[in-house]
Structure formats: structure tokens, C-alpha cells
Amino acid sequence: MQTSVRNFLEQNPKLAHFVRFNPDWYRYLSRNPNSVMELERASKSFYGNTLPQQVDKIGSHIQMASMLLNVADLMKD
């Protein structure tokens, strides 16, 4: 792995953790060091940081809060 890629991973510990968890990326980055943007996209998908994943997470939180409010209203009666 090139030193520039290694330095980039040292500066971004979340990406370094992703690479350690997915060892195929070691080979991929060694062969094509310019694919750092693809690595960032894959790690966002892995950690659930893409926009659709975040919207789903917020939707589930809103649904849970709504359900808790409904239960609280039923308990009040």
C-alpha cells in the first residue's frame, strides 16, 4: 500500500477500521490507490451514513415515538 493511502487512513480512523474489517480493501487499494472515493462510499454504506439509511433511521425513531405517545394516551384513560 502506498504511503499516501496509508497516511490517509491514519488521518481517518473510521475508514481505517472499515479497511481492517474488510480486508479485500487492502488489495483493492494496493492495486488502485486512486479509489479512495469508492472506499469512502463503501464505508458510508457499511456504517449506515448514506442519506436513505439516515432517513429510514429517523423514520423508525419517529414511529417509535408515536407508538410511545399512543401507549401513554391509553395509560392515561
From TrEMBL:
Pfam families according to UniProt: YlbE (PF14003)
UniProt name for this protein: YlbE-like protein
Organism: Lentibacillus cibarius
Lineage: Bacteria, Bacillati, Bacillota, Bacilli, Bacillales
